[in-house]
Specification:
- The chain is mainly α and 65 residues long.
- The chain has one domain: Histone, subunit A (Orthogonal Bundle), CATH 1.10.20.10.
- It has helices at 5-13, 22-49, 57-63.
- Helix 1 crosses helix 2 and helix 2 crosses helix 3 (57-63).
- The longest helix is centred in the middle third of the chain and has 28 residues, at 22-49.
- The model has no long low-confidence stretch (mean pLDDT 95).
Length: 65
């Protein structure tokens, strides 16, 4: 999974009037990709534990708990 560095820069800029470095945007991208991957793995595990082939939104929410 990959998030765009430019979108991460836009996300940070939407919260401030300060300039945002490419490094800050890249770091946010890396953190979010790791976090999203971990949550995805947990959500897949939840669906598997419930004997389902489909990962649902509720599985993602439960993975966050």
């Amino acid at each position: 999974m990959e998030f765009s560095t430019s979108k991460m820069k836009d996300l940070i800029k939407s919260e401030t009037s300060k300039r945002v470095s490419k490094g800050a945007a890249e770091e946010l991208r890396e953190v979010l990709e790791t976090y999203a991957g971990d949550i995805s793995e947990q959500a897949i595990s939840v669906a598997k534990d419930d004997d389902r082939k489909t990962v649902r939104g509720e599985d993602v929410r439960n993975a966050l708990r």
